Each structure stands twice: as structure tokens, then as C-alpha cells.
Amino acid sequence: MLNRIDLSRVDLNLLVVFGVVLEEGHVARAAGRLNLTPSAVSHALGRLRDLLNDPLFLRTPKGVVPTARALSLGEPVAEILGRVGKVMASAVPFDATTSRRRFVIGAPDAAMTSVMATVLDSVSAHAPHVDIGLLHLMPEQHGGPRDQPWQGSLEKLEKRHIDVAVLPLRVTPPRFEARRLFEEDFVVAMRKGHRFARSPSLALYCRSQHLLVSFSGDPHGFVDDLLAKRGLKRRIALTVPTFMMALAHLASSDLIAALPRRLVASHAARFDLVSAELPFKRKPDPIFAIATRAAMMDDGIAWLMGVLVSSAASWKLSNPST
Fold first, then answer.
1. The pTM is what?
2. Looking only at Cα atoms, what is the longest distance across the chain?
3. What is the strand order of the sheet 176-184 is part of?
4. So where are the chain's domains?
């Protein structure tokens, strides 16, 4: 732990450099984000190594790898910087009615098309000068374990590429704060007149040709895991990268797809689609608004989280059957 003499030698910028290098895992990329030269970043890390008596980062051919000490410091350093940012921002408190900030919300396009209209209406009414950016997020099925498909989205939050994410996470790591918005389940969507709509059954479901929303193009989803447990399988005839694209293809084909109930309910009339219940049981997905705990010290981010929660509550009241 730093003593009083050590604290007098600490430049807060060293902690900023540390945090960015930890996020990027690469000195040159961190330097680019900080508008510094790589040598300046290396010099700052050297000073911090001396203060903390630890190498902090070990060089590899692909960048740098944090030591155990560096990993343990990641969360407290982020919290320190968040508190400092809150203190500095307190000179000009966040006021939604006058703020001209721009916030970025990341979410799967199914969530965007279902709930974001209410969010944007609320922002327009109560924060007329605030701008919103929407970033499409999808689960990653390559390069990581299948039980952590949203890890890349959480990393975007930590790197501040997005301010808040709307995700179907059952477990949220402790360094994040999550607010429950609603529960989402899936239905089988198809064009009007499809034979599955007339006589839905598990056998017919497996014989049908399926469409799967897969950002990576991997023809495997949660339905395939559930079918495999029953010794069954299906044919994925088409994968598409977005839910909205899925709706368009279902309207003009004999394909069927398991899609979020809210998405189908919102767009069935537009695409002339119908839906049926899944021919097997599945727990609904809890949908959360998620931000890092450090980001939540920013009054603007906290306000945005509140808008998402209140908008979701309003949406549920006006759509009680979905």
C-alpha cells in the first residue's frame, strides 16, 4: 500500500495509462487511445512499476499480458478514476434538459426494435439536446466458451466503446451493475399459411427448414442444444446476421425461426407473419441494462440507466400480453 510520501509522487495520469493498457493489452494501441507516443506510455508504466514494486505487464509477441497484481488492481483503479471523474464533473452537474452529450447504447437489434422506440421518445421529451448512438451487439460463438457468448459486449463496456448494454445475461460479473428490464421468451415465427402454424408439433418442427440469426454465421444455436438433449436435430437452411433480416426472409419463404416474442409481436403485421409456441419448454431470458460500476459514478450514465428502466416499465404496462 502507498504511504504518504509515495502518494505525493503519484501522477494521476499514471493510473489512466495503466487502465487503458490493461484494457487494450497492447502498448501501441493504448498510446493511440491516449494520444501519446508508445515510448511515453512505456515510460509511464516504468514509473508505476517503481511505485508499486511489480512488473505489471509482461511483453509477448502479440502485446502485453497483465501480472496477477495488475489484474487485481484493475477494478479498484477503475473505481478511483470513476470517483475522480465524478468529483471533476461536479463543477458542471449533469442536467438532462440542457446537456448536449452523446450516449451509446449497445443491444441486439431485437431489443432495439422492441424497446428503443420508447427510450428514444423519453430522451426526446426530457433531454431534447442529448444524442443517442445505437450499436448492434450479437453473441459470439467463435473464439470463446459457449457459456460466455456476451463476453465481447462486456469488454466494449469496459473499454467505454458503449455506455450501457442491453443484454440477456443470467449472471453479471461483480464489476458491472445490472438493472432488470423485462423477460424475453421465444416463439416460432413463419409466414401466414405455413403448415407448422396449422399443426405445430415437435416432429414437424424438426422436419422443417430453419432460419437462424447468427452474427458469425455459425449454424448452431440454443435450440440445437435443447434438441440434442432429446436426441433430435434440425436443418439450418439459412443463417442471417440480424433479427430484422430474419423477418424479411421468413415473409418470402417456407423457413421457420425461433425469434423473440416481442420482436414478432411488434412486426408480424408489417411482414405478414404468424407465430406459434415452441414445441418444447425453455426458461425466458432476463434482459438487463448493464454498465460498469465505475461508469455509474457518472451522473449522465446513471440518468441513462434510469431512462432504460422507466421505459421498459412503460412498455410492459402498454403491452401487458407480451
1. 0.70
2. 78
3. 131-136, 102-107, 164-167, 285-292, 176-184
4. 4-89, 102-134+160-181+285-318, 186-277
